[in-house]
Amino acid sequence: MDKQDELRKKARGLLESKKVEQIIGYAKGSNSTRTTPKFVSDKNKTEELVWNSFCTNNLTSYLKGIKNKTAIVVKGCDSRALVEMLKAKQVERENLCIIGVCCDGIVDSGKLFQKIKFDPNRDEVKEDIENLFIHKNKISKKDVLLDKCLFCEYKIPVIFDTLIGKETKERIKDEFLDVKEIEKMSAEGKKKFWKGQFEKCIGCFACRNVCPICYCEKCVLESRDPELVSSDENDRWLFHLVRAYHTTGRCVDCGECERVCPVRIPLRKLYRKLQKDVKEVFGYSAGVDPEEKNVLMDFKIDEEP
Amino acid sequence: MYTIDKKHFKKFVENLMNSYAVMGPVKNVSFSSFEKISSAQDIDLDFCNTPILIKDLFLPRNEVIFKFKEKNKLLEFEIPAEKEKRLLLGVRPCDMQALLLLDKVYSENPEDEYFLTKRKNTIIVGMACLNPDPYCFCTSFGIGPSTSTGFDLFLTDIGDKYFVEVLTDKGKEILNFGLFKKSTKDDEKLKLEISEKLKNKITKTANTKDIEKKLEKMFNDPYWSELSQKCVSCSLCSFLCPTCYCFDVVDESSLFGNYGERIRCWDSCQRKEFQRMALDHNPRAEKTNRVKQRFYHKFDYFAKKYGVLACTGCGRCLRHCPVDLSIPDVINEVQKK
Predict the structure, then answer these.
(1) Residue B94 and residue B131 share a domain
(2) Are B236 and A204 inside 8 Å of each other by CB?
(3) How far is Cα A286 from Cα A267, in angstroms, rounded to an integer?
(4) Nearest chain B Cα to A257, which residue?
(5) What is the separation of C-alpha B161 from the centre of its chain, rounded to a whole number of angstroms?
(6) Within this chain, do residues B52 and B180 fall inside the same structural domain, yes or no?
(7) Is residue B128, in this structure, part of any structural domain at all?
(8) Cβ atoms < 10 Å from Cβ of B285
(9) A231: which chain B residues are within 8 Å (Cβ-Cβ)?
(10) Contacts of A282 (CB under 8 A, 6+ apart)
């Protein structure tokens, strides 16, 4: 049985037994390279759920403040965000049934379009574990994976109630190569690089709204009274840097912010720099152990300053 | 109608630059956007459409309405003057159509001087879209990749030359810069063939026929709450929409309030704060109502007021939507109801 069938069966079972009231998963999207988040509460509609290499969204951001019993489909990276949400009491564990899916990596449709010309509105994309098939062409998935999937240490979700699939690929240690590249730049070079990036920002707040870790009810960065971040272009720095510091020690690199940015600011590079620092200084990675206290909210009596 | 050899195009742009501030598609690291060019070589016409809208050049994201300064206990005001003569080059038909919709809104009484001045001072040269992408659905709105309505001049790539349509007097002025030849019958035939071919490149479609009548009947349909579940209220769709025109007005002043600016900045009905009124009353506090508003404004209210749908199928909202909430698919679903 493939993962999709297994998922549908599981989902149906959960709804039939009334263990949960709804399932948050993925459904077919607007074209063959897309999926869309799907809320299923009717057991006869579980056939609409899909699992494929285009299940990009981190669905955990839908759990903010959810009150009814919910089953949610998570990949490894998503599950780490969920751990952070549970730690911050943004969602009650007893309300959740976590359907973990072993993930072989998610395909970046942008990279795919560069590799092969096709019309996703008309042409189907089929796949097996290693490859995608479009027309009669075979494309190796590993050539078109999302950047975040190239170095993934969490192919199996860190937290789940039920697991779908088996781990099929080796873990690839994340060496923070992208961050190291920026670290090599001079201070002036870094400033120039980020200035160029932040200048593009159109202030749409999409990065913040898709973030499972951004759960403040009122965001200071949107405040007009007092006006903390003005419309001035230079204040875009402030927006991104405040967000970076605020998510430090909690950001799990699910990559949603970078994925949704319409002007392609490489936000992961920024957040990953702080992840790297936290790892080096405290030996801590966010979203791994639900019992572990958040590193920046904890201290040891005999800690060296 | 006329043609211009591609090898003369650079010269043409250079000539224009002597008289106008020429703005055209410039390729940055990751995407193209319309920017003021300093050399004809900056222009790169090979793009689909830009995440930064040309709307920004007429209704800037943040626009200073006036500056104020306290002097001898009185306030002094200064209204920024806008006199620059601009020429936009390489604008896509979907974006032009959207600008025509904004014209309707901002020419209403009272006229919006800020918008209209910029509009009057700008000549727009369009270009047929050779590479529409899978998210484009302009043909669903009675237009296509080579619709020339609204432009002053419109170019279509027909091989080694551009076919040039002159549509206004302003457009005629540019012809004075020379380098143009009268078009032949063959050119015209080729142009028509290419236009037809381009239309067929658009494969995403929405059935927009009488959509406003359909919507009228389903305001309270549970479909909307189901649809809106997946929306994350990021408001990206309205920030990328060439036809969205709502703005907010704020004062940004110094710490002691003795000098500052009054600015208007884009706002979005997808944000919870958008409709918040005095005493915290908010008719669209629920996400469902906000998502519904997006569709009703574009395909019902606007259609009834101005006789045209407020969408041109540029596909930006769909292309960039984090949750794949697709306007064409929603329209088709609504039609099935």
Answers:
(1) yes
(2) yes
(3) 17
(4) B322
(5) 27
(6) yes
(7) yes
(8) 13
(9) 61-62, 250, 252, 263, 265
(10) A295
Any A CB within 8 A of B265 CB: yes
Task: Give pLDDT, residue B69.
Answer: 94
Instruction: For residue B14, tell me if it sits in a domain.
Output: yes
Q: How far apart are CA B125 and CA B87, in angstroms?
A: 7
Among B200, B235, B255, the domain boundary falls at B200
The token duo for B6 is 């591609």
Name residue, tokens 């927009």.
B208
Task: Give pLDDT, residue A17.
Answer: 95
Distance in angstroms (rounded) separating the CA atoms of residues A105 and A144: 10
| CB within 8 Å of A234: residues ≥ 6 apart | none
Q: Are strands A96-101 and A162-164 parallel, antiparallel or unpaired?
A: parallel
Same-domain pairing of B41 and B141: yes
Q: Tell me how close the Cα of A204 comes to any Cα of chain B, in angstroms.
A: 6
CB contact under 8 A, B134 and A35: no
CA distance A210 to A237: 20
The boundaries of the domain holding residue B173 are 2-59+81-200
C-alpha B197/C-alpha B200 separation (Å) is 5
* Residues of chain B contacting A54 with CB distance shorter than 8 Å: none
Edge-to-edge strands, sheet with B247-253? B74-78, B62-71, B259-266, B247-253
Q: Is residue B145 part of a domain?
A: yes
- Contact list, A201 vs chain B (CB under 8 Å): none
Beta-carbon separation of A210 and B232 below 8 A: yes
- Band (pLDDT 50/70/90 cuts) for residue A220 is confident
Same domain, B193 and B223: no
Encode A105-144 in three state secondary structure: CCECHHHHHHHCCCCCCCCCEEECCCEEEECCEEEEHHHC
Q: Which residue of A has its CA nearest to B62?
A: A231
Residues B126 and B234 in one domain: no
Asked whether residue A1 carries a pLDDT value surpassing 90, the answer given is no
Rg (CA), chain A: 20
* Same domain as B216, residue B169: no
Q: What is the reported pLDDT for A229?
A: 74
Read off the pLDDT of residues A264-286 as tens digits, 9 standing for 90 and up: 999 999 999 999 999 999 999 99
Position B68 in a domain:
no
Q: Is the peptide bond before A226 cis (omega within 30 degrees of 0)?
A: yes
Domain boundary among B144, B172, B200: B200
Are residues B97 and B156 both part of a single domain?
yes
Number of domains within chain B: 2
Shared-domain flag, residues B193 and B284: no
